[in-house]
């Protein structure tokens, strides 16, 4: 799929103004591509109409993979590959496996979650993250509106809606 | 604008006759089951009596063991109410402000628990605690026990071993005394704040909370050794105090959650919403896992090292026909069930899941205490029967009555608490 290339950016100073702006801009029928902020703004997800992240599902599945992997590995090693009697226990002594199982579950769930997050938010090593406005890492909130997905709405209308809702600047940004 | 003062902050819980009726019914049902259990035990007990040469098993012993299980268990839930209250202040938590009165109301059980526990100890110490027999400490007696003799000072100091366990009783009185003192202190500060207002009460409460938490850190552990671990006098476990505390804590959190949901269902606590309940659910979920961690840490090391004097504790339970199955009931109710059911966000935000899981957890942790107390006191004569269920219901109903009737005396919300507004706007 071809990535969106041309954006209008609304720059905001204040998170309360940002929140009401998101509400007003969406009410005006404009689709918001993304909002970038230097810190988590409480309630922004709800205002943007985001559904809950599916990241926990990925975490659960990776955790399950870790559990399976750990148990399979230990059963194979201890029971079939190199059976040893340790402390007079059965070769496949289940309670002994639990610490390793726990650790691998946590490890894979955590790594899997970070990996999925990195890939899905385009922070993967081979990805090229798009910087809309560097100040969004400092003290400005940046609302990005994709022109292509707002085909029916007039450009000037979007800009004036941003101005009216309290944006300190309205800029354009295009990517290669 | 939405704010906490829009709500009726002076609202009191009306302990209606209908609610009392349910509690009395459950208590009555428990008493009936208990009575049937006692009669059944008194009639049928003679067959097994012959097994132990000369030592007839009397049903009263089982009654005392049951009293002890519930004494320890409900004392724990009561003190956890006060503990969780104190934690909120020590952690300067704002979200829980609307729930503080529920937590502190549990502490009203403490004076009753103290009387019950002392009384049970004086009546039944020989049936419950092997170390109370004086012949153990008499070196000329054939039943002399060198190991218990070595531990004797922990119970009898400064008196002669085998006489009157003054140190033990002193600790029991001291712990209950201080717990009740701190409970009253915190409770009265909270009620005074309602009348006078201002932030000074919050600071004073935080100070007393911190002192209480330090005292509780030590006393919860020592009380676990005294009241539970000393039943298996030979055995030892260094994390037993934490194990008992973890069990108490999960049960207490479940009880707080259940009372909160009950009050919400009745139409009280309007400013409490699903976000607060979600956080309570998280606590139940997290500390169920904490309990499992502690339980398993204790089990794994003993199982792995397999030193006879340590592993006897688990052998008594796992290889017993009476108790073996309940080990698995314990793990399923207290770990598998809350872990799987409460894992998702939706489950923690819907009361029906929490009601189900919290009720089962309260029963589950009772089973945990059942497994701690009965094998050491009753051996193969124990079991989970009518007597056990009856006694649990009687204690549960009495506890609920005491907590709810005291909750009804004062407003449900500490209206002058400086963090009330924060609690109202709690959002996750």
Automatic annotation (TrEMBL), chain A:
InterPro entries: ActD. It comes from the Bacteria. The chain crosses the membrane at residues 57-77, 97-120. Keywords: Membrane, Transmembrane, Transmembrane helix. This is Quinol:cytochrome c oxidoreductase membrane protein.
UniProtKB/TrEMBL annotation, chain B:
Keywords: Membrane, Transmembrane, Transmembrane helix. The chain crosses the membrane at residues 22-43, 63-87, 99-124, 166-186, 207-228, 240-263, 283-305, 325-343, 352-373, 385-408. This is Quinol:cytochrome c oxidoreductase quinone-binding subunit 2.
């Amino acid at each position: 799929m071809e990535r969106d290339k041309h954006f209008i950016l609304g720059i905001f100073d204040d998170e309360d103004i940002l929140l009401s702006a998101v509400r007003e801009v969406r009410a005006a029928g404009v689709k918001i591509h993304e909002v970038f902020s230097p810190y988590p703004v409480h309630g922004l997800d709800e205002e943007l109409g985001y559904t809950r992240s599916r990241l926990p599902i990925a975490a659960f599945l990776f955790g399950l993979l870790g559990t399976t992997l750990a148990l399979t590995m230990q059963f194979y090693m201890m029971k079939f590959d190199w059976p040893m009697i340790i402390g007079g226990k059965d070769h496949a002594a289940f309670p002994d496996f639990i610490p390793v199982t726990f650790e691998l579950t946590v490890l894979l769930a955590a790594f899997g979650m970070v990996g999925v997050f990195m890939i899905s938010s385009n922070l993967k090593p081979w990805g090229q993250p798009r910087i809309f406005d560097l100040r969004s890492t400092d003290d400005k909130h940046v609302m990005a509106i994709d022109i292509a997905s707002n085909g029916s709405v007039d450009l000037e209308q979007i800009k004036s809606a941003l101005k009216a809702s309290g944006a300190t600047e309205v800029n354009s940004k295009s990517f290669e | 604008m939405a704010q906490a003062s829009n709500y009726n902050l002076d609202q009191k819980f009306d302990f209606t006759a209908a609610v009392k009726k349910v509690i009395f019914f459950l208590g009555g049902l428990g008493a009936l089951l208990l009575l049937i259990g006692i009669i059944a035990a008194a009639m049928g007990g003679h067959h097994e009596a012959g097994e132990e040469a000369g030592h007839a098993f009397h049903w009263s012993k089982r009654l005392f063991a049951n009293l002890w299980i519930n004494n320890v268990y409900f004392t724990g839930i009561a003190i956890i109410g006060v503990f969780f209250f104190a934690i909120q202040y020590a952690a300067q938590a704002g979200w829980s402000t609307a729930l503080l009165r529920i937590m502190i109301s549990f502490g009203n059980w403490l004076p009753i628990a103290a009387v019950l526990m002392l009384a049970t100890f004086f009546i039944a110490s020989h049936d419950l605690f092997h170390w109370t027999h004086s012949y153990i400490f008499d070196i000329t007696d054939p039943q002399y026990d060198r190991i218990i003799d070595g531990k004797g000072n922990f119970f009898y100091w400064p008196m002669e071993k085998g006489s009157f366990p003054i140190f033990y009783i002193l600790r029991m009185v001291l712990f209950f005394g201080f717990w009740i003192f701190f409970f009253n202190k915190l409770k009265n500060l909270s009620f005074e704040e309602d009348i006078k207002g201002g932030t000074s009460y919050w600071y004073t409460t935080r100070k007393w909370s911190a002192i209480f938490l330090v005292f509780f850190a030590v006393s919860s552990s020592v009380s676990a050794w005294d009241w539970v671990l000393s039943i298996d006098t030979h055995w030892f476990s260094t994390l037993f105090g934490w194990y008992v505390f973890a069990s108490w804590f999960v049960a207490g959190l479940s009880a707080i959650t259940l009372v909160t949901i009950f009050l919400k269902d009745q139409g009280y606590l309007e400013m409490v919403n699903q976000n607060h309940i979600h956080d309570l659910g998280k606590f139940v979920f997290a500390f169920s896992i904490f309990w499992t961690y502690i339980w398993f840490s204790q089990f794994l090391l003993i199982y792995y090292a397999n030193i006879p004097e340590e592993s006897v504790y688990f052998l008594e339970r796992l290889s017993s026909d009476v108790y073996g199955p309940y080990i698995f009931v314990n793990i399923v109710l207290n770990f598998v069930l809350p872990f799987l059911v409460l894992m998702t966000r939706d489950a923690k935000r819907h009361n029906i899941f929490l009601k189900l899981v919290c009720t089962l957890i309260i029963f589950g942790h009772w089973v945990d205490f059942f497994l701690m107390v009965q094998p050491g006191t009753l051996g193969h004569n124990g079991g989970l029967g009518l007597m056990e269920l009856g006694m649990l219901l009687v204690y549960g109903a009495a506890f609920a009555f005491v907590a709810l009737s005291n909750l009804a005396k004062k407003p449900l919300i500490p209206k002058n608490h400086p963090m009330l507004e924060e609690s109202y706007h709690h959002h996750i």
